[in-house]
Design goal:
Radius of gyration: 23 Å
CATH architecture of the domain at 1-45 and 151-179 and 406-470: Alpha-Beta Barrel
Mean pLDDT: 97
Distance between the termini: 51 Å
CATH superfamily of the domain at 1-45 and 151-179 and 406-470: Metal-dependent hydrolases
Structural class: alpha/beta
CATH topology of the domain at 1-45 and 151-179 and 406-470: TIM Barrel
Strand content: 5-15%
Length: 470
């Protein structure tokens, strides 16, 4: 019987061990999509305790705790931090076979060298050990990232953000490159005219553009897009249930915008037309600058309206969605391709029933201009677990070229989440080793090791147009 979570965790043969330890493990990490706080990195924040570092903002853990019967005061509420930690410690033994069980113990090992299993009996000792270590040199947020060999981090930022913290990080000379990513989701949230107009007021303030018509709105967005580029941004991102690609004219968009500006509600057809118009414009801006654009598709967000009102978004009330994806996505990409304005694009889907659709859709628009121009992104959110990763690896292998895949990301708000890259790398190496051992791939360790290194690091390093470090 193998020991739990030893140095060969998830590696089921000597060959898998060799591929991981010799080829994948030593590589740095490029985390090109996450929700880390640039402010905490700028100030090199030190967490007061393990709850602040580990539980605050982590809706994965909150969902598990609620399912275990833990009251909200111990998740997002005002209970003392030690009590919150103990509630999590009481939940962990019940997360068996959920990726949280593996992640929890990987994080305890990698950051704190704690090999005990977290449960109510060990909670007191682990609480004190973690807290003591968090107060030592090298355990600030920068130290935690350096410990995991993180080379590049891309945060997720609204167009109205000042990016002052990114500037401060850059000017500090820190060896980890931290870049913003342009995420204009609020510019497309037209279902609530009051909220939309409040956002336009923020856009006016930061862009200096008086927004009275749709042309002014586009000018303001371009201004912020340019500003982000000046601050090192080379990536955009969208979080949508599905792509919008309805037929539109500028006149159509202008009429919808005028209604919104007057505080009038728009119907679903009008909203779809305006979102299609704006997504097209944003994609053209990305193409002009040679940015990589990302689309995270397929979630149903904020399903629990009562909890949404009480706690706000991103607190754990979202699910996999079942929106129809293919036709609209194909139209959107084709429209840009016909105009010669389709930039590098990464597509993420949350519903596993759409896996083959996304894997094959990317091949429809890979035009030979660059390797892996259109990517099917890593297993995301509810799918970044063993089965989800294995499915993504298998389907991409069968229907595309896994060798040009740009690999893993954390999509996390936690500075302790970077062992997820290790998790992916172990699964990837185990997969290749299984194929070699079955005679389905040649025993060419040097070449297959190179492909593994490309997926884990080099493809990402070469795919994105990273700015030079000042």
């Amino acid at each position: 019987m193998k020991a739990f979570l030893d140095e060969n965790f998830l590696l089921h043969s000597p060959l898998a061990e060799r591929l991981y330890h010799d080829y994948a493990q030593p590589l740095p990490i490029i985390d090109y999509h996450n929700h880390l706080s640039p402010a905490l990195m700028a100030e090199d924040h030190r967490f007061a305790n393990i709850t602040k570092a580990w539980l605050d903002g982590d809706h994965y853990k909150w969902r598990a705790m609620r399912t275990h019967g833990v009251e909200e005061q111990f998740c997002t509420g005002d209970a003392p931090d030690e009590q919150k930690f103990r509630m999590w410690a009481g939940t962990v033994p019940y997360t068996l076979r959920n990726p949280l069980y593996h992640w929890t113990h990987l994080e305890l090992q990698r950051y704190f060298n704690i090999h005990e299993l977290l449960n109510p009996n060990t909670a007191n000792n682990i609480w004190h050990q973690c807290n003591e270590q968090l107060q030592t040199p090298g355990s600030t947020v920068r130290g935690l990232l350096e410990r995991m060999q993180v080379e590049i981090v891309c945060t997720t930022d609204d167009p109205v953000d000042s990016l002052e913290h990114h500037r401060a990080i850059r000017e500090s000379g820190w060896r980890v490159n931290v870049y913003p990513a342009f995420r204009p989701d609020r510019a497309l949230q037209v279902e609530d005219p009051v909220r939309f107009n409040n956002y336009l007021a923020q856009m006016e303030a930061v862009s200096g553009v008086d927004i009275s018509g749709v042309g002014d709105f586009l000018e303001a967005i371009r201004s912020r897009h340019d500003y982000f580029a000046e601050q090192g941004c080379c990536i955009s991102d969208h979080g949508l249930e599905h792509i919008f690609s309805e037929a539109f004219t500028v006149g159509d968009a202008d009429r919808v915008f005028d209604k919104l500006r007057a505080g009038q509600p728009v119907d679903a057809t009008e909203a779809g037309v305006f979102k299609s118009f704006l997504l097209q414009y944003l994609a053209e801006l990305n193409w002009e600058k040679g940015w990589v654009q990302q689309f995270h598709l397929g979630s149903f967000r904020n399903n629990n309206s009562r909890k949404m009102r009480e706690l706000g978004p991103d607190t754990g009330w979202d699910s996999i969605g079942d929106a129809r994806q293919g036709r609209a996505l194909g139209r959107f990409l084709d429209r840009l391709d016909v105009q010669g304005k389709l930039t590098k694009t990464i597509l993420y889907n949350l519903n596993p029933s759409d896996n083959a659709l996304f894997a094959t859709m990317t091949g429809d628009f890979n035009d030979g201009s660059v390797a892996g121009k259109i990517q099917w992104g890593s297993a995301w959110w509810f799918l970044d677990q063993q089965d989800g990763m294995r499915d993504q690896i298998n389907i991409l292998s069968r229907m595309g070229l896994l060798s040009h895949f740009v690999g893993m990301l954390t999509d996390s708000r936690s500075f302790l989440s970077f062992p997820r890259h290790e998790y992916f790398r172990r699964i990837l190496c185990s997969h290749f080793a299984e194929d070699i051992n079955r005679g389905e791939l040649p025993h060419d360790i040097e070449w297959i090791g190179k492909i593994i290194q490309d997926i884990c690091y080099h493809n990402t390093r070469n795919y994105f147009p990273w700015p030079e470090k000042p």
